[in-house]
Fold MOB3B kinase.
Amino acid sequence: LKQVFNKDKTFRPKRKFEPGTQRFELHKRAQASLNSGVDLKAAVQLPKGEDQNDWVAVHVVDFFNRINLIYGTICEFCTERTCPVMSGGPKYEYRWQDNLKYKKPTALPAPQYMNLLMDWIEMQINNENIFPTRVGKCEEE
C-alpha cells in the first residue's frame, strides 16, 4: 500500500474544491447522489438552477480522482516488461501524440502512456482557462 501513495508513481492526490464555493456545494451534491445507490442517469442530471459547465467540471474532476485511485492500486503490476504496449485488448493499441515531444502517434509501454495521459489530464484540469476554480462563493443558508 505504501507504493500506491508514492508521489513518484502515477498516483496523484485528489483535486479538492474550496469549501464555500459553488463547485464545492455541487461536489457534495454529486457525491451524495452517487453514494446513495440512485439511478446513475438521474444522479448526473443537471440540478435545477445550476450552471452546466460547473456541473460537468465537478464530474470530470471526480472521475479523474476515481480513475487515478484505481490506477494507483494496479500500477505496480503493470511494468514496461509486463505491459510493453498500451492496448485495449488484442484489437486496439493506443499510441501517444501530444504535438510537443511526440509529434506523431507513438507506441509506448502502458506505464509510460498512462503517466503521460494522467499528466495531460491533470494539466487540463488545473488550467484556469478550461476549469476555472473561482466561480463564486455560495451564500450562507
